[in-house]
Amino acid sequence: MFLKRLELVGFKSFAERLSIDFVKGVTAVVGPNGSGKSNISDAIRWVLGEQSAKNLRGAKMEDVIFSGSDSRAALNMAEITLVLDNEDQHLSIDYSEVSITRRVFRSGDSEYLINRQSCRLKDIVDLFMDSGLGKEAFSIIGQGRVEEILSSKPEERRMIFEEAAGVLKYKNRKQKSEKK
Ligand code: ATP
Ligand code: MG
User: Fold this and answer.
1) 40 Cα to the center of ligand 2, angstroms
2) Which of 20, 66, 116, 143 has its CA 20 to 30 A from that of 38?
3) How far is CA 52 from CA 100, 155, 174, 175, in A?
4) How far apart are the first and last CA of the chain?
5) Which of 139, 138, 62, 66 is CA-nearest to residue 105?
6) Is 34 annotated as a binding residue?
7) Is pTM beyond 0.90 here?
8) Is 109:30 a contact under the CB 8 Å cutoff?
9) Which ligand does the CA of 16 lie closest to?
């Protein structure tokens, strides 16, 4: 599995529709301060289901929507699509290419789609759980995260190993069924 493409519309500083193609191997995003490099990683985090505005460096979820500039009016919707190559069936879904879309409107409404079909956030979380790509996973290591991991409590650190080992899904299911 690898990241093939990221499509952004109205997300943070990206007012224009933008499609970024990734090739296999290492991609580095470079640019001056404030040009939107971190906004790209925020976009990936967000489409994978991040619910905390703070983790996206904003105060409220609406802050992910383009808020306007000197030459452009603010937009009412932000949309991100992440396209993954799933040729190796790493994600348990019967498609060789998987796209995940998240939209949010200023009204607060949001939508999630898997392969352009409307779904729940839970479906996205379940799809990525134990794949190494979930929002809690180790695939995105933000600034300060290394230090956070090193200084975290053993129980917190254990979560990372559980995600890596692929047991988190079963643990979550067990907890849910015990609650019922
Ligand atoms: P650095 O090198 O300093 O880390 P960076 O390239 O990572 O910079 P970002 O933090 O990704 O930069 O981008 C910050 C820019 O995004 C700021 O100019 C900020 O005004 C803009 N921005 C963030 N949210 C919005 C929004 N909702 N609407 C418009 N612009 C936004
Ligand atoms: Mg940055």
Assistant:
1) 9
2) 116
3) 19, 21, 25, 23
4) 35
5) 62
6) yes
7) no
8) no
9) 1
What is the dihedral sign for C-alpha 147, 2, 45, 7?
positive
Quick one: which ligand is closest to 31's CA?
1
**CB within 6 Å of ligand 1 — which residues?**
12-13, 31, 33-39, 63, 65-67
Extended beta strands in the chain, E state: 2-9, 18-21, 77-85, 97-105, 110-114, 117-119
CA-nearest residue, atom 11 of ligand 1: 36
Structure confidence at residue 37 (pLDDT):
94
pLDDT in tens, 82-141: 999 999 999 999 999 999 999 999 999 999 999 999 999 999 988 988 787 776 666 787
Residue 49 amino acid letter? G
**CA proximity to 19, closest of 65, 83, 87:** 83
Domains of the chain and any CATH numbers: 2-119 (3.40.50.300)
Q: How many CB atoms lie within 10 A of CB 48?
A: 22
